[in-house]
Specification:
- By secondary structure, the chain is mainly beta.
- The two termini are 29 Å apart.
- Strand 8 and strand 9 form a beta hairpin.
- It has three helices and ten strands.
- 11% of the residues lie in helices and 49% in strands.
- The longest helix has 7 residues.
- The chain has a single domain, classed as Hypothetical Protein Pfu-838710-001.
């Protein structure tokens, strides 16, 4: 089960280059249910996501680079390219800041994952987070992929 809150970004944190980052490319083979392929630096995954907004089922499976490249021409919509910065918030939470490239630039979203729905509901976002878009399916990457 994936439980996360998602926000637009009001202002980028300072010193982004100091944080761990990942170059991510992902595309969607299907959006209902969500079946995604992703390259994250040198790792490859196939992901299934169920329905839901803040909490939903998620299963991730490793892929080879060859399998990713084979599936790539089969995606619907655009290939999403983004840089993800991993910004520690406290001992247990990390902000995953996505700075979109290409067609979706200058969009910036930040997500935080939680162990429970209750924990997510009581989360107080840092000042640099913008509007909470958790309950808007518009900002699911599977829907963003249709913008192309």
């Amino acid at each position: 089960m994936e439980i996360e809150r998602k926000y637009l970004v009001k202002a980028l944190p300072e010193n982004l280059e100091c944080y761990e980052q990942k170059r991510i490319s992902q595309g969607y083979l299907c959006t209902n249910p969500v079946i995604r392929i992703r390259r994250s630096n040198d790792e490859y995954f196939l992901t299934y996501k169920g329905k839901g907004l803040m909490a939903r089922e998620e299963h991730e499976f490793p892929l080879s680079a060859e399998a990713f490249e084979h599936l790539l021409p089969k995606i619907d919509g655009i290939l999403i390219d983004k840089i993800r910065y991993l910004i520690p918030l406290d001992e247990t939470h990390t902000a995953e800041l996505d700075v979109f490239q290409g067609t979706l630039a200058p969009l910036r979203l930040v997500e935080v994952e939680f162990a429970s729905v209750e924990e997510a509901e009581h989360f107080v976002a840092p000042e640099w987070f913008g509007d909470d878009v958790t309950n808007s399916g518009e900002y699911h990457n599977s829907n963003l992929s249709k913008r192309g």
